[in-house]
Amino acid sequence: MDKAADVAAYLARLETERGYSSHTIAGYRRDLATLIDLHKQAGGARQDWRAIADASIRRWVAQLSRQGLSAKSLARTLSAWRGFFDALAEEGKVEINPVRAVRAPKLPRRLPKALSVDQAMQLVAEPASAGDSTFELVRDQAIIELLYSSGLRLSELTSLDAEYVHGGRAGYRSLSWFDAQGAEVTVEGKGGKKRSVPVGAPAMAALQAWCDRRRDWLRLHPERHTPALFITRRGTRLSNRSVQLRLKQLAIRRSASASVHPHVLRHSFASHLLQSSGDLRAVQELLGHANIATTQIYTALDFQRLAAVYDAAHPRARRRG
């Protein structure tokens, strides 16, 4: 049987029916390629999917663990395999899903890293020197302000268009865009779910400065027209990796933190908003979490902050020698 064809059909289904992102599809493709390789190594090159039992899955998980795969990666791999075998069962290609009998390794609870309010203010504070008004730095200032103001995921940020476009070149239609009039961004998050997020006043000012600079640049280079909000000097949409590198460099220059990345600003946005408002549901909506249990991790961050204040201020908080 052609196992690769079954995998390709399943991935196409995830993309078209469930709206999974290209990043998620790529991860599933790697995990299912691993499944095929392990089955082949076990002598299953000429066997169909029915030959895989729960004992095989357990043996392969142990093998991957010995090779250094983390508990988180193993859980993700099992999730990909489980979904694939569910699809095979629906098609009648297997009677039972062998992965259903295998439990994922227990994941250690890791709280997301967030900046303190002072660190966040230090990072987004725009330098006063005239030398910081270059194309890249005006753009980068708008990026860090927007990340902290609206809590966007990295992929949501880079997919933004400068305005909503429908019926443009080759029938192009925006999936995510900046609405300057409404002071908000509309983004397509995980699972193709759309949400609109407000943009604060400092972020709006930074975005307006960048949009003016972007407009001037495109006027000088009309042949490089692009709907993308954040662009390079070549007129191409800014990549995820470029944003990560630029943000890290800015953080080091501004002495905010050497380990700042886009998701740290998302965590900081959520943590600081929850500390001020106490409204978990609102934070869930703004972050685009499907399940409020995902958002509840920020309540632990808030408790850590309160515990730190207690330890530092209360005379009976700690035993002192």
Extract low-pLDDT stretches.
none
Helix count from the secondary structure assignment: 13
Number of strands: 3
Radius of gyration: 24 Å
Class from helix and strand fractions: mainly alpha
**What characteristic shape results from the CA principal axes?**
globular
Profile the largest sheet: 3 strands, antiparallel
Percent of sequence in beta strands: under 5%
Note the gap between the termini: 72 Å
Q: Helices and strands, in N-to-C order?
A: HHHHHHHEEEHHHHHH
Strand order of the largest sheet: 1-2-3
Percent in helix: 40-55%
Mean pLDDT figure: 86
Characterization of the model:
The chain is mainly α. Helix content is 55%, strand content 4%. It has 13 helices and three strands. The protein has a three-stranded antiparallel sheet, with no helix packed on it. The longest helix has 20 residues, at 22-41.
Summarize this entry quickly.
This protein has 321 residues and is mainly α. The chain contains 13 helices and three strands, in the order αααααααβββαααααα. Strands 1-2-3 form a three-stranded antiparallel sheet, with no helix packed on it.
Give short descriptive properties of this protein.
mainly alpha; 55% helix; 321 residues; 13 helices; globular
Write the layout of secondary structure elements.
Layout: H1 3-17, H2 22-41, H3 54-66, H4 71-90, H5 117-124, H6 135-150, H7 154-158, E1 177-179, E2 184-188, E3 194-198, H8 201-220, H9 240-253, H10 262-277, H11 280-287, H12 292-295, H13 297-313
Antiparallel strand pairs: 1-2, 2-3
Helix pairs in contact: 1-2, 2-4, 6-8, 6-10, 10-13
